[in-house]
Amino acid sequence: xxxxxxxxxxxxxxxxxxxxxxxxxxxxxxxxxxxxxxxxxxxxxxxxxxxxxxxxxxxxxxxxxxxxxxxxxxxxxxxxxxxxxxxxxxxxxxxxxxxxxxxxxxxxxxxxxxxxxxxxxxxxxxxxxxxxxxxxxxxxxxxxxxxxxxxxxxxxxxxxxxxxxxxxxxxxxxxxxxxxxxxxxxxxxxxxxxxxxxxxxxxxxxxxxxxxxxxxxxxxxxxxxxxxxxxxxxxxxxxxxxxxxxx
Length: 247
Description:
44% of the residues lie in helices and 16% in strands. It is an alpha/beta fold. It has one domain: Glycerol-3-phosphate (1)-acyltransferase. It has a 7-stranded mixed beta sheet with strand order 1-7-6-2-5-3-4, sandwiched between helices. The mean pLDDT is 94.
């Protein structure tokens, strides 16, 4: 019975997101004609659709900050990744315009496609050309003072219950080369509510707890110390993840 209810809740969540997306779609289509000019409007609509879709089915978000975050600055935001909901969590969290860098499969999703065709950055795995194009697009956004979300684990792993997997260096190399601060974000509970795409266990109402760690400045980090920066951020995030999940 519980499994059936969780499956029904998953369908209700997707129906909710599609409902709000359908309401916004005519304006999104209009703004998509000039994404550079309408960047902030598209970001705002993405946030509204994401958050409304979650809240309509009883999913809430609680954010805890380790230190004050100056949202007027540009960040490379590095969250862990265990759930389809992580994207919505980031739209709720960020107080500044930002773009996602994510897998190009999201271009096939009826909701995420319009965002990855306009304001976000799709990357084809194992393609050097795609990675190069994504890097150039990321630089354009960062130079335009827009923050960028990169999931440093690279993907949601098949392991359940999830752990924090080793990071890929791309986000940290980008940060050190251009003196952009890293903002580590640890998303807890999302996997309990909606693991991966929800197909295996369904979903349920609940509260997602988010721990925003202190920004890590990179201006004094040399390009030769990318791996050290990566380990530093990984260890901080893992300590937070382990402390919460052992309590």
